[in-house]
DNA sequence: TTCAGCAATAGGAGTTATTCCTATCTTATG
DNA sequence: CATAAGATAGGAATAACTCCTATTGCTGAA
């Protein structure tokens, strides 16, 4: 029927190297087009579709981790180890939570479902300092001139 | 500057009632267009944009809960109480986890971030029985004719 | 009851993020 | 070098929403 997996040789091209380097430098968890914006400064001719393709390739390669947060854009993480995140409900920013993942959770929950459990995701939701500040400013200006 | 909130009166229209009833009947956590498909059988002239708009309105109204699972489509839940879910990594199906949410988690994590924490989300990831079955069938057919 | 006015709808256009396609270029290897 | 697999730029296509507009439906005051 179907052939055995073709095992193509992945190449560490300039584009891929730069994407990886810039992702490492950013402490945030950028979306594809945030990566595009910074990478463009070093490789002005790179295309957005290359960024998408390379990020996907690097994920399969195990050099980058895709974060599926909330419901909107894909975010990418240079740190491929298991860890948790906080997400801002307003602006979508994502940051790390410095805490060890609860490995026992999956064991503990295994009997509650007939799914074959392969992992879990824990996400804190909140308002980031910047969005909080903006919110307070707006509130203040409303009080001043109602 | 901006006017005070206009406080419009929401109406429980036929469309909204049917959407709510069908959502209640479905045990799953359907996406907007899965809702559209079933509602269409009772209201053949309803439009997809009405389904989207009404689901959003019902969420604001507190009668429906929007689930932001994984990264793709929006799923909707008739049960607005806090609870956890399992998601199939293959097909995206979402089911409830019969367990009380860990309310202490948010307290415990509060010091780990400068975000103002407002909630959390815990999601088990796995393979649903149906996808597991398919996977095994494929494996078998490969072994038979390699 | 009538009717003014706000609320809601159908249908379709527009948007956003992502994926797909293709002609062309690059690299590794014999 | 010749060749072929891998990768790229640029743009078209798609999926899932989101917005717009003309029309219709309700409702509460007269
Ligand atoms: Mn991270
Ligand atoms: Mn649920
Ligand atoms: Zn924010
Ligand atoms: Zn499945």
Describe the structure.
The structure is a homodimer of 146-residue chains. By secondary structure, chain A is of the alpha+beta class. Chain A folds into two domains: 9-80, Winged helix-like DNA-binding domain superfamily/Winged helix DNA-binding domain (Arc Repressor Mutant, subunit A, Orthogonal Bundle); 81-146, 2-Layer Sandwich (Dna Ligase, domain 1), CATH 3.30.1490.190. Chain A contains five helices and five strands. A three-stranded mixed β-sheet of chain A has the order 4-3-5. In chain A, a hairpin with a 7-residue loop joins β1 (65-67) and β2 (75-77). The radius of gyration of chain A is 20 Å and the shape is flat. The model of chain A has no long low-confidence stretch (mean pLDDT 90). The interface between A and B is large, with 41 and 41 residues. The complex binds manganese (II) ion (2 copies) and zinc ion (2 copies). The site of one manganese (II) ion has 6 residues of chain A, from loops. Chain A binds a DNA duplex (30 and 30 nucleotides) through α3.
Bound molecules: manganese (II) ion, zinc ion
Instruction: State the helix count of chain A.
Output: 5
Q: Greatest chain-chain interface?
A: A-B, 41 and 41 residues
CATH topology of the largest domain in chain A: Arc Repressor Mutant, subunit A
Q: Largest sheet of chain A at a glance?
A: 3 strands, mixed
Fraction of residues in helix of chain A: 25-40%
CATH architecture of the largest domain in chain A: Orthogonal Bundle
Order of helices and strands of chain A: HHHEEEEHEH
Overall tally of domains of chain A = 2
Shape of chain A: flat
Percentage of β-strand residues of chain A:
15-25%
Cα-to-Cα separation, first versus last residue of chain A: 72 Å
Q: What's the oligomerization state?
A: homodimer
Task: Supply the CATH superfamily name of the largest domain in chain A.
Answer: Winged helix-like DNA-binding domain superfamily/Winged helix DNA-binding domain
CATH class term of the largest domain in chain A: Mainly Alpha
Mean pLDDT of chain A: 90
User: Largest beta sheet of chain A: what is the strand line-up?
Assistant: 4-3-5
Number of strands of chain A: 5
List low-pLDDT spans of chain A.
none
As a whole number of angstroms, the C-alpha radius of gyration of chain A is 20 Å
């Amino acid at each position: 029927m179907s052939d055995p997996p073709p095992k193509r040789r992945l190449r560490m091209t300039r584009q891929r190297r730069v994407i990886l380097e810039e992702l490492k430098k950013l402490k945030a968890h950028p979306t594809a087009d945030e990566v595009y914006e910074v990478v463009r400064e070093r490789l002005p001719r790179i295309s957005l579709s290359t960024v998408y393709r390379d990020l996907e390739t690097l994920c399969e390669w195990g050099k980058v981790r895709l974060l599926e947060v909330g419901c909107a854009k894909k975010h990418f993480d240079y740190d491929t180890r298991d860890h948790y995140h906080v997400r801002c409900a307003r602006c979508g920013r994502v940051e790390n939570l410095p805490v060890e993942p609860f490995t026992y959770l999956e064991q503990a929950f295994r009997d509650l479902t007939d799914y074959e459990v392969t992992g879990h995701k824990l996400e804190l939701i909140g308002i980031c300092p910047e969005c909080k500040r903006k919110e307070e400013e707006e509130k203040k200006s409303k009080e001043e001139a109602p």
